[in-house]
Structures are given as structure tokens and as C-alpha cells.
Amino acid sequence: MSILTRxxxxxxxxxxxxxxxxxxxxxxxxxxxxEEVEDIKARFERLGPSFIKLGQMLSCHYDVLPPxxxxxxxxxxxxxxxxxxxxVLNLVKDELGGSMEEVAYWxxxxxxxxxxxxxxxxxxxxxxxxxxxILRPGVEQVIDEDIRIMRFLIKRLPDTQSFPIDLKDxxxxxxxxxxxxxxxxxxxxxxxxxxxxxxxEWEVKVPKGYPSLCTKNxxxxxxxxxxxxDRAVPALSRFRRRFLALSLTKTYLYKFLKDGMxxxxxxxxxxxxxxxxxxxxxxxxxTCFLSEKIRHKSMLLFWGLLRRDISLVxxxxxxxxVIQGHVDPMAIENEIYDFLEDYLHRPLGQLSLPDMLKDMxxxxxxxxxxxxxxxxxxxxALSMLEGTLHTLDPNIGFEELLDESFxxxxxxxxxxPLLMMELGKEKIKQAFFDISMTVSVGAGKKTEEKSGGIxxxxxxxxxxxxxxxxxxxxxxxxxxxFALWMLMCAFIVR
Length: 494
Hints:
Blueprint: H1 3-25, H2 34-46, H3 49-58, H4 67-73, H5 85-96, E1 103-106, E2 112-113, E3 117-124, E4 129-135, H6 139-155, H7 167-181, H8 184-195, E5 204-205, E6 218-222, E7 226-228, H9 229-232, H10 238-259, E8 261-262, E9 271-274, E10 279-281, E11 288-289, H11 292-306, H12 310-319, H13 329-344, H14 353-367, H15 373-392, H16 398-412, H17 416-449, H18 456-472, H19 478-493
Parallel strand pairs: 5-10
Antiparallel strand pairs: 1-3, 2-3, 3-4, 4-6, 7-9, 8-11, 9-10
Helix pairs in contact: 1-6, 2-3, 2-4, 3-7, 6-7, 10-15, 10-16, 11-12, 11-17, 12-13, 14-15, 18-19
């Protein structure tokens, strides 16, 4: 297909799709009929690989799309007819060159075909059966052309200002993400990293790569015979289902808190149960990495959510940059507090943490705040994880599993002292705020009542004294110093 023909196809089909999304995004998501939701999903699928991946990316954006639309886009069908066998085999021979001699047999019939790649079984000369993931011939060029056409059309799309997503930024984000997925050497590195350090007793496996048979367009890995999770579930006992659900949750938290890795597609299609009854996690193309700071603040967020600590949840969100740049922080604080009160006071078992986070993100437009992309990816991954766990057992309580997993993983990684220290920091911040409010009130009354309160100079001195103590004293004495400092503050305020 020529770029002119493809451009015409996108102009005819993509522009109406964007306009439809814009119109729906300005309506209450509760009023969108199911047939309209399905129509949007079908339009993305008809437009081909680029738009399937674009739709999957947009499924993270609960901040700008109605949740019902975002949820539908997360289930876009990624299965297409395979590419011609001769083209795929020629690509394999060209890419591997002399390394192809290590392959005793290459099965021309793929065992799976998605929008970007397809997978073939092969027998290696040293004996084991392997799985070879191969990018579709020419897919990189197709996607590059689609991105150029998208950018061309967006410039000519009328009234883009009213669209809640900046279309240019949307395409830029898509371009960045798809480049990562088209690099199978990156996926090899992510897969290897994800498999490191997982406790054997969790019974979770990650395929191992064969580097000599890997290139940017080819990923060769160990083959695991088994069934897709949703198909294997009926044969599992209830006890086994819960064990696997717990293992999956612990694995997610372990890799996130240890290495900052988020498997962005933990849906049942990417999880097998092998012949040994173990979980096998597949597809690391969409894996993202989050910084140490985000991990630690997210750890506090998890703790606050699980302990129903609204103040901690709010301060964690603020630390993650959710409240950043808002013109009226006190007003938005009240809005978020009210929102959290509504959710976190619900009984155990009646709260879906991913749903709560998705609703919070969808409210961000109303509150006038910007949700950082790392948090969006976490929300999407948690939502997909919850859906996968419900596939294992609809009666499984996600919050309960998350709490149990969180306790074990933080112990394994020796993160509890860090968690307590971060909790202490947040409580100190809150204490500073409370004291400053007391000082402000006292200062306001001082001229009228001629009594009580402490001066700003005294307060500054106390803060300086606290900081000096934390800097000079050994870490083991920090708790005792904090207690003494709080006692001194209380005495002075009194």
C-alpha cells in the first residue's frame, strides 16, 4: 500500500474517529451507549497495527477519556492473520546469518500472530524447543508512515483546542512507546531483568533468552508448553487459584519495588500455566521503568490506601506531583479529601483500589490537576492485574491480596525500615504544618490578647535545630531525637 493510499484511508477513517472521541469525552461517561463504545473499539481495530497500539496507549488515559472508553480500548484485539511464511523466513535468515545453523528446525506455522509480531516454534541443535518472536516484515516502515500521516492530519484537524488530549503530544507519546516495542533487544533485556531474583516458592517463571539468536527484529527464548490462564482455570482447585493469585500479586510488587519495573500488560493472554502448574509470564515489550523516588512514594501510597490513612494518601499523591502547580492547593486538598473519604471508609471487600484510582484520575480534569504519566501506567497495570486475578477467582479480594503481598515483599526486600522512615517524614511534614498553623493563629491573636504563641524566629530556630540533629546524630538515634524535638515544640507552643 502506497503512502498516498494509506493517507487517504486514514483521512477518511481516523479524523471521524478523533472527532467522535472528542464529542464523547465532553459527555458524562455514564450516558455513552454500549454500541457507541463498541463502535470506537472496532474503528481502532480496522485501522490496523498503529491504531491498535495507539488505542492501547490511550487506555491509560483515564484523565482525559471517559473510563468506559478507556476500559474498552484496553481490550483491543491484537490478533491478526500471520505474514507470508516466505517473507518471515527470509527475514530470519537475513537477520541471524551464520547463527541460523544453531536452529535444527523452524516451524513455518506460527503459534500466535499479533499486530507487531508473530511467534514460531523452533528446535535448537542442542536439543531444547524454543519460541522465536519475529517482527512482521515491514511493520516498522508501516508504523513510521502512519505516524507521519497522523502528524500531517492533526495539523489540519479543525478545533483541536477543545479536545481534552493534546493530539500532538498524544502522537509523540505513542511514537516513543512504539519505538520501544519495536526493539526486541530491549524486550530481551527487560525479560532477563524481570526474571532475576524471583523466589522459587512463588512458582512463577519468566522465559530465558538465547542472545546469539536475538536481534532487534528477533527474540528467541525458551518455549513453555501450557495453557493460557483463562483456559486453565476450570481445572484448578480453589486453593491453587488463590495461591497463584497471591504469587502473581507478589511478583508484580516485588519487581516494582525492587527494580522499578512495571509490566504494563499483565492480562490473562500474557500468562500461561505450564505443565508443572507454574505461572509463566510473557511479553515484556511494553515494560516501563520508574525512578526510585516514584517507587518510594508509591510504596507510601499503597500503605496509605491499605491502612485507610487519608492524610498519608493525600501527601503521597502530592509528593508524586499530582497537585503540582495548582492555583488553589487548599481547595483541591478539600476536593481530594472528600473523594478519599467517600472511598476509603467503605468496608473491606466493597472497595476496588484500581477503580478508585481510575475514578480519581478521571476527576483530575474537573479538579484542574495533571496526573503524571508514571502514575497513569501504574493505574492501568493495577487495573489489568485485578482483572486477571478475578479471572482466577471472581471471589478473590484484591485489597486483601495486595495487603498480604505488600507485607511479605517489603520484608523480603528489607524495605520496612525505609517505609517507617518515609512515614516518619510525612508525619513530620504534617506536624510542621500543624505547628505553623498554630503559630499563625497565635501571631494573629497576639496583638489583641497579648498572650501565648511563639515568634517566627523561634519557629525557625526549632526547625534549624531539628535539621541539625538529623544531620549530626546517627540514624539509630533519629527516632529519639524526633520524640525529644516534638516534646520541646509542644512545651514552647504551650
